[in-house]
Write a structure and sequence with these properties.
By secondary structure, the protein is of the alpha+beta class. It has 7 helices and 13 strands. The strands form 3 sheets. Strands 1-2-3-5-6-8-7 form a 7-stranded mixed beta sheet. A 4-stranded mixed beta sheet has the order 11-10-12-13, covered by helices on one side. Strands 4-9 form a two-stranded antiparallel ribbon.
């Protein structure tokens, strides 16, 4: 099965399918921004391993020290995404990808692997029940139910930053933090901006452009974080219906 997978490199990234969005021959702005972001991250030890096909079957992880998330710890890997969708489910691909990550971590002498989870599964987070079968367990949590899951090889544990656990900001308007890590984000931001303009909703869109900015975020974050009336709402990417629900709750 290992022959069915390839890792993205600086030599092949320009031509390889990036998995999240099954695009046509037309250029997709989110995919191209992700390709640019990922090209810089590959130099930092970031790994993007995918099925050698036009499919959503991949794992994406990085050394925690270089991962754009407000999590601290020494010598860990952080998994951003692990997805197997559609007709490719049930073929052992998820297991093969997780096994690869664990073997890679052990070969490089890592202390463990961690990922973002929640007490209740979130739509835009990888399947935590699957991760827990490997021994991942909650090692830190927020008051609203998000968890940091870790598979420790040596007993050490990563943590959310104090800022991330605060989950509050001074800005009372709809506020969205986002990065270029996910190719779905540009169109989501565009649609929400248009909705807010049409409905006279004051909103702030804050792009996270550096590792330093990501480590200082005031909320848990995988590539997206939403606040309203100063309170953290979700890491889920929003459609217009979800935006309206948040505004009504406020």
């Amino acid at each position: 099965m290992t022959d069915e997978f390839i890792n993205l490199t600086l030599e092949n990234i320009a031509d390889e399918h990036l998995c999240c969005i099954i695009r046509s021959k037309m250029l997709h702005p989110g995919v191209e921004l992700k390709r640019e972001w990922l090209s810089a991250r590959l130099k930092e030890g970031h790994v993007f391993r995918k099925l050698n096909a036009k499919a959503t079957v991949f794992i994406e992880y990085a050394p925690l020290e270089n991962a754009w998330v407000p999590v601290t710890g020494e010598n860990y890997y952080y998994i951003y995404c692990l997805w197997v969708l559609g007709e490719h489910k049930g073929k052992g691909y998820g297991k093969a990808l997780m096994d690869y990550c664990i073997a890679d971590a052990k070969e490089k002498g890592k202390s463990g692997i961690c990922m973002l989870g929640a007490k209740k599964q979130k739509n835009w987070l990888s399947n935590q029940a699957f991760a827990k079968k490997y021994g991942f367990e909650a090692v830190d949590s927020t008051e609203d139910g998000y968890e940091l899951l870790a598979l420790s090889f040596d007993g050490t544990k990563p943590r959310f930053t104090d800022m991330a656990k605060r989950q509050q900001i001074d800005n009372l308007n709809l506020t969205i933090y986002y990065s270029a890590q996910c190719p779905f984000i540009p169109k989501k931001v565009e649609k929400i901006k248009k909705y807010c303009e049409s409905n006279h909703v004051i909103a702030s869109f804050i792009q996270v452009n550096s590792l330093k900015e990501s480590k200082e975020l005031p909320c848990v974050f995988n590539n997206w974080g939403v606040f309203y009336r100063g309170k953290f709402e979700t890491v889920n990417l929003l459609d217009i219906g979800s935006v309206e629900k948040i505004l009504k709750r406020g």
